[in-house]
Structures are given as C-alpha cells and as structure tokens.
What we know:
The complex is a heterodimer of chains A (308) and B (439). With 308 residues, chain A is mainly alpha-helical.
Amino acid sequence: MxxxxxxxxxxxxxAPYTFLIPATLLFLLFFALPIGYAVxxxxxxxxxxxxxxxxxxxxxxxxxxENYTGALSDxxxxxxxxxxxxxxxxxxxxxxxxxxxxxxxxDSEKVRLAPFTRLAIFLPYAVPGVVAALLWGxxxxxxxxxxxFVLDRLGLPQPxxxxxxxxxxxxxxxxxxxxxxxxxxxxxxxxxxxxAEVYEAAKLDGxxxxxxxxxxxxxxxxxxxxxxxxxxxxxxxxxFSEPTTLKPLTNSxxxxxxxxxxxxxxxxxxxxxxxxxxxxxxxxxxxxxxxFGFLRAANRRNKQEAAR
Amino acid sequence: xxxxxxxxLVSSAVAVTLGxxxxxxxxxxxxxxxxxxxxxxxxxWTWTPGMDKVVDLWNKGPGKKEQITVTVKKQASGDTxxxxxxxxxxxxxxxxxxxxxxxxxxxLVSNDALADIGGNVGxxxxxxxxxxxxxxxxxxxxxxxxxxxxxxxxxYYREDLFEEYGLSVPATWDEFAETARKLKKKAPDKDxxxxxxxxxxLFAGLAQQAGARWWTTSxxxxxxxxxxxxxxxxxxxWGGLVAxxxxxNQPMYTPAWNKALNTGKQIAxxxxxxAPGTLTTAAPDTKGKWAMAPLPQWDEGGSSTGSWGxxxxxxxxxxxxxxxxxxxxxxxxxxxxxxxxxxxxxGIYPASTSAQxxxxxxxxxxxxxxxxxxxxxxxxxxxxxxxxxxxxNVNVAYTTFKxxxxxxxxxxxxxxxxxxxxQQDTVxxxxxxGFGVAx
Lengths: 308, 439
C-alpha cells in the first residue's frame, strides 16, 4: 500500500520541473549561453606575432582581467558615462514629469477630445528611434530647418543646437518626444484603476481637483511611477541610436559619445571584440546595480510608509 | 531477434561511417584549393550596384565554358563588410570571393582571410599601374587581390562662380589658400570648400599626395608614420584654413552640405574621380556648371595626386576552389567586356589602365558634359597617383581620425595635436595586439 502512494507523490513533485524544462532550455540557450560566451570572450585577447601577415600569425590567448583594467582606465568610456549621466538628468525628470502631467490632465473630468489627445501624445512612441532622430536631426540643421528659416525671418538669434550644452537638450528632446507617450499611458492606466469611491469621498470632504491630484492620485499611482522611472533609467543607460544617427550631421558627436557607442566602435570599427565584450559586461553590471538599487530603495520606502 | 537487432546496428554503423566520410570529403575538398573537376559554384560578396548583371555575362560566357558559376550576394560597403568577412572567416565560412578596399587588405591578410592567388591570375599584373598593383601585394611576393576600381583625387570647382568672383584655378596649395581667402573677402557668406572630418579616406589621400607613408615595415616590425613631416604639413595647412575661417568646418554628406553645393554656398570640392555621381544627387541644379582640374600641388610644377576610395576583388582562404575564383577575379577586372559592363552597370572607374580610355570612358559623364575631355584628363591624373602604404590597423587610425579631427575642426584648434593622437592610438593598438612596432 505504501509504495504506490509514495510513487504518486514523487510524480506530483516532479511535474513542475518537467513543465519548467522548455522554459529553462530556452533560457539557457538564448540567454545564459550568449551572455556566458560574451563573458568568456572578455577574458581573452588576440596575440599577434611579428608583422602579423600570413597564416598562424594570430592566436587567441587568455587575457585575465586585462580587458577590464583597460576598460576601467579608459577615460573615453568614463567620459561617455558622464555624458550619458548629464543626458539622463535632463531626459528622465522632464519625460516623467510631462507624462504624469498629461496623465493627470487626461484623467480630469473636464477634458475634451480625450481619446484623440491620448493618441496624439502616444503616437511619437510608434515612430522608430532612428527615424525620430533623423527627423529631428534635419530640423536641427540650420541650413535645411524650417525653424531656422522662421527665426531668421523674425530676426531672432539662431542657436547652434548641435554643439556643446544645447546638444544635450537636442538629444534629450528626441528621447522626451518619443518616450513621454508610453510613460503617460502606463500612468494613465494606473489612474483609471483607482476606484471611483475614493474620488467621491474626496469630493464630499471638499477637496479641490488640484488637492485630489496631489494628495490622492499621485500617491496611489506611485508604483507605476517607480516602474516608469526604472524603465527610463535602463533606456537612458542604453542610449545608442539617437546619437549614432546624429553623428554624421555634426562634428560634436564623437563615435564614442555614449558607452554603448564605444562598445560598438571597438567591436565593429576597431575589430577588438574582446575589449568590447569586457566593456559590455561592465555596462550590464552598472545597469543592474543602478536599476535594482533604485527598485530596492523604492521598495524600502514603500514598506516604511506602510508601517507608519 | 538478436540477429536482426545486430544487423540493424551494423547497417546504421555503416551509414554513420559513410556520413562521416562524406563530411570528411567535404572538409578535404575545401582544404585543397587546386583540385577542381566538374562544375564549380562560387559565392561573391560585393557592394557594387549592378554587379549581378556583370556576373551574368561571366555565367553565360566564359563561366559556362569552364563550368564556373558565380553567385552575387549584395553586402554593405567598406569597413562593415571587413568585419563581416572576418566573422565569417572565424567560422570557416567566408565566401569564395570578396570585394575589399585597398586599405582593408592588410587587415584581412593579417587575419589570414585572403589567399595568395599569384599563380592563378595570369598576366593580370601588366594591366595595372605599378602603384595600384603594389597595394595588392603588400610589398611581398604574394598577390592577395586583383584591383577593380581606383579613386584618383581631383579638384572640382564651379566654373561660373570662379569667373564671377574673379578667381583662378589654384595650381598649388598656396594658391588654394589664397583663393579661399579672396573668396571670403568678396563674399563673406560663401566658402571655397569645407574641411570634413567624417571621411578619413579624404585626409589619407591628401597625405598620400604630400608623400606620406603611414605604415612601412622594417624587418618584422611595423613603423607607423602618421605624424610624419608630410602629413603634418597637410594637417597644418587645413588646420590653419579652418582656424582663420577661410574654409568651413562642417562635415560632408549632410543635407546641409548638399544644399551648400546646390546653392553655390560652397563653390569647390576636393574629391576623386567618382565625384560626378555624388554631385548628380547632391547638387542636381548646378549640372554643367562644374569643372574638374588636377589637385593643387605642394611644389610648383609638380604633378602628383592621392587616391580616395577604390577597391579590389580577393579570394578567401576558406574557398574550396581558389583557382577558379582567381580566374573569375582576373576576368572581372581585366576583360574588356567585363570592364565595359562594370562601367555601364556600376559606374566604377576601372583600375585597369587600358579600360580608362575605352568604352564608357570615351564620353564625359553626363553631369560634366561641358568638359568633353573629362576622362582623358582623369586618366592622365590617375597616372600620377603617389604610392600608398597601408597597415594592419587602418580601421583604428580611421576611427581615431574621425573623433580627433572632428573635435579639432569643431573647436578650430590645433590639427597637429589631433594628428599626434591619431599616431599614438594607432601605435598603442598595434602594440596591444602584439605586432612588432619599430619606434
């Protein structure tokens, strides 16, 4: 009697693992394996002997941490990280601020043409990043931009948007234009999920629409704000296509403007995949630490507030 | 029962062995480049537009006779293709034939991706100028490619506007600088041309004209001379013009640049023989108003030019039919019919000297119909091309150029410092990879 019972219990225990096999296999094959290979490459390098011409002049050898020390002592990578930090300081607050503002406005009772406005704000998100960058790039070039034509006619100053400080604004503008709609939809969806009784209670207590927005709506959509912030940090650290598209239009954007551009340049411009792999690993680690660090901090605050 | 089971085992073992021998046969055939019996099919990676039509001529003509069929696979141009070839080569799967720019040949050879086809290209050598052919041998006894097209550099200018502003065509670089200043005085919102930092080939060509030798070998060591006296002279010259505002500092190939050429805001362009094609799309409204002259010289009465662009056809070490592939490469770039088709379908300027004055090149390009002797002049200029010296990490020097000179042009700062950065980065990269480097 005992044996069959044990067998069934064993079968039930094993079932979840069996169901997990396909997902685990796919994870290993298409996620863990490529990452592992990149990490493996980052510990190796190519060794050339003499003139390096002909067969057998080139071999792949173990490099230890050489690629990592190289990447960390590379001022260009650090400068790129600083540039992206500056860019992120503009993009993230402006984009999320606008997204929240638009979401609150769309959610208010007096709004007209809400579906159309929502679509209009969201639409730029559907434009591919490269196309958006090209579009804006043309608008930034003084000689072909209609904006400059108007400024010229009005006798107003015509700033060079593709140089120095304004370049950061120009790049941020592209990201804000493309990303606000998506973040707005996320926040707006959270707003719609707030039960109507809450608003009713607020109204009965005599809260103005502004007070409702500040004291009720924003705290209640805080988890969505955390989520959008989290996505925005990752997107900022991975900025690549906008500066790459603007690069041929100006001398101000170097081929190594952002850390990912440097990785691309080293791998495909200079042909050093080993150094590129080490840099990519470092960027992945930094992204992980930054984004999850933020999530933990946000969670801790939530818990403290809940305890209060 | 046991008997049948064993039989099945035996037969499957035989099948496996057969499969293995078949695989081994494949492997051995790809190692042995010379043996070819029966029909051969080759793959060719190229970015030249219209190449499939030219290859059709081969497949229907000489290729049919020799049972060698070539298939064209269209690729991205330049450095992107080099990366792709090297990646494919790492997997042992590079195509039989590839198109490669001259400056990429040392990189490809250094990765052991290109085969020595010296024994299979017949008398191809006699069809090319020495300076062109030398680029495919890298100064060794081997032949790593057959030259296809070249880009001798020339000076293009708006004939009508030069007349309007009372400018004469500069014969020396000093006169070029004077012309730029004179134009600035007469029309402050116009520029003679721009110094663009987004195409390293232009600067390399200008340095080549001045007599620079960026990579040379001594013994088993490379010597890098990017900041040699000749290149410094070129860098100082352009840096000076940019700093004093005599020429513009914005990059080429942007919508703004197109507009500047099309509206006569920039009235000259230091370019190469392929310029008519670019001008046709960039400045369509000024057709027939441009003229071509030899590049200004460093020494009065001199005649020398650099090259910007140009490519060759090479056979990879992964090819299973190197001899057949070399035969095709030689036909493509030396046969009269093939070269005519290349000129017509792809608009290339042939490296083969005999082709430079025949077929499509007896009449000027449509954009330059006002200059009937365009190609006669071009051929004469091509003959004066200075020798070039490429090394195994041209790609590194080129990317450093874009960033260092881009920043220098933007800030109108010292070009010599940018040149030194280029030299240092190139040397550091060679050392890092383990190449022997002579100081």
